[in-house]
Structure to design on (193 residues):
């Protein structure tokens, strides 16, 4: 699955965010489709997410993206049977604080079903489900047919060489004069190669 911009990921589901730069969720004009961005690493292997009691709740509860997500999760609960589409967000390095985005991609096979929502703080819990199955069967992260793109940090051997490395070259010596040959490979003293 190819990573996309946030605007492209929302458009994949026909949803439109308040602001494509800071929005964490979006809704379609007819209020029948909701899409929510979710950090992939925050979902358990069982396909569930629960952000109740998050240690960094104070950092994100007042952000405009959270306020919009509360509105949109309410729409999902009231108009979509609790179902919402997922835009997976992958982190470059989970040891960074805050995380930086390596990529985003829409989940095109499964959806999430909202279990609980705190309309004041934005804390919520949800599970991964197969909307096409009877009774919206629960799914695990391993069940997804489309696996995420893997972020690979640049390999040190493929990085641009430093100027010192660029000036280094293999040296050759003139067989006749026993002096180092210039870059041309022709001896300045005797003219031999």
């Amino acid at each position: 699955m190819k990573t996309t911009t946030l605007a492209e990921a929302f458009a994949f589901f026909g949803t439109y965010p308040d602001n494509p730069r800071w929005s964490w969720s979006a809704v379609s004009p007819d209020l029948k489709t909701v899409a929510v961005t979710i950090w992939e690493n925050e979902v358990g292997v069982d396909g569930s997410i629960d952000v109740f009691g998050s240690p960094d709740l104070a950092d994100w509860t007042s952000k405009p993206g959270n306020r919009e997500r509360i509105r949109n999760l309410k729409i999902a609960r009231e108009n979509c049977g609790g179902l919402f589409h997922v835009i997976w967000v992958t982190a470059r390095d989970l040891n960074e604080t805050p995380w930086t985005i390596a990529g985003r991609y829409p989940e095109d096979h499964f959806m999430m079903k909202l279990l609980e929502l705190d309309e004041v703080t934005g804390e919520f819990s949800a599970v991964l489900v197969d909307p096409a199955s009877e009774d919206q069967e629960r799914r695990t992260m391993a069940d997804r047919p489309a696996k995420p793109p893997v972020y690979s940090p640049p390999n040190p051997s493929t990085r641009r060489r430093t100027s010192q490395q660029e000036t280094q070259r293999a040296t050759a010596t003139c067989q006749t004069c026993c002096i180092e040959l210039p870059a041309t490979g022709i001896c300045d003293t005797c003219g031999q190669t």
Summary: The CA atoms of residues 2 and 49 lie 24 Å apart.
